[in-house]
Each structure stands twice: as C-alpha cells, then as structure tokens.
C-alpha cells in the first residue's frame, strides 16, 4: 500500500509522529502538524517531477519507509517535546521554539527539493571537492538543485505569518533551512566513503537547520 511517498510502515510512523507533535506542541501543535503535512505534500509533488528522467537514471524512489520518516521528522518531535516542557518550566520563549521547529522542517524541505529537482539538472559537482560526479551521488550539487533548495526552505518559512511571526523570522527560517541542506550535502561526501547514510544525513540536516536558527536568534537578542 502506498500513499503519496510513504509505504505502509511509513504511513504508520508518520501518523504516530503527527499525533506526537500535535499533542506535545500544545497550542502550537496544530501548526506543527500542518508543517509536517505540508512537507509531505511538497515531497510528493517534487518526487513526481521528471519521473521518466528519474526512472532512466535509477533515481526514482516512490515509496519511502519508517526510516525516512524518523530521519526527516525525528528532530521535529524532539523540539515538540521541548515545547511541551517549556510550557511547564519556562526555560525559553515559545516564539524561539516555534522558529526552531519551523527551521527543522525548512531544512528537510530544502534537502528534498535539492535532491528531487537537482537530479534533473546537468552534471553535479561534489560540494567538498568540486569534482564532477554521477547524478544521484550523495554530496553532489547542481545550480538548479541549490536554487531549488532555497525555494523549498522559503516556502516553509512563508507559513510563519500563520502564527504571527513576521519578516525577520521568515528570513531566519529560510536561511537556516538552506544552510541545513548544505550540511546534508557536505555529509554526502562521507556517505560515499561509507561513513553514515542518507538517514543520518537527513537527521543532521534537520538538526543543523534548527541549531543555526537557534544561534541566529540568540545572537540577535544578545
């Protein structure tokens, strides 16, 4: 059974993750869940772009499983748990945690756009070495993929006015998501060397985007 880009185990994992962010997110839970669903929808759309070309290249992955769900949404669940704890102990501003959460989704969306759209471009370059590599090689980047990654990050960031966050927050989340994808691309070089895999890189992408957003916000308030 396949729904959008998830297989049956992926669907179960996504449902459980959705329930977790909805409940842990308290009054922001609806927005947290919306972002996950929005990411899933965007992921499905870009996966179907250039299907024939992707199939010819062996780069078409229609159904993804629970490992993909955990790698992409695991950080979001952790931040939702922090948001829940913050409602009790008050160790951070709710706005900061909402921005950090959005950044994690911005990062994985940027990564999805980069990989699914970038593969339709010309010959990629390994980001760390700038050497030409085959399409689909982890760590390989193209101009189209790079631009697309920022577009993906920005699309997520532009949802922030829904929860009353303005232009500065939108900019922070867009930039953080884009940079999170850059981290994912850098780690791709090590994937090709047998260190890590696409799941660890996706998890690091979301974590890096969140951390970058956090640091920007902390420095801005310093």
Task: Please describe the topology of this protein.
Layout (H helix, E strand, L loop, with lengths): L1 E2 L2 E2 H17 L4 H19 L3 H7 L8 H24 L4 H25 L6 E2 L13 E2 L1 H15 L9 H26 L5 H23 L2
Antiparallel strand pairs: 1-2, 3-4
Q: Which key terms come to mind for this protein?
A:
single chain; 222 residues; mainly alpha; two-stranded antiparallel sheet
Q: How many beta-strand segments?
A: 4
How confident is the prediction overall: mean pLDDT?
Answer: 93
Q: Give me the secondary-structure category.
A: mainly alpha
**Form type:** globular
Across the major sheet, the strand order is 1-2
Sheet bearing the most strands, described?
2 strands, antiparallel
Helix content: over 70%
- How many domain units? 1
Would you identify the regions where 5 or more consecutive residues have pLDDT less than 50? none
Q: Classify the beta-strand content into a percent band.
A: under 5%
Please compute the radius of gyration using only Cα atoms.
17 Å
Distance between the termini: 51 Å
The total count of helices amounts to 8
SSE order, one letter for each helix or strand? EEHHHHHEEHHH
Characterize the structure shown.
With 222 residues, this protein is mainly alpha-helical. The protein has one domain (2-220). Helix content is 70%, strand content 4%. The protein is built from eight helices and four strands, in the order ββαααααββααα. It has helices at residues 8-24, 29-47, 51-57, 66-89, 94-118, 143-157, 167-192, 198-220; strands at residues 2-3, 6-7, 125-126, 140-141. The longest helix is centred in the C-terminal third of the chain and has 26 residues, at 167-192. The radius of gyration is 17 Å and the shape is globular.
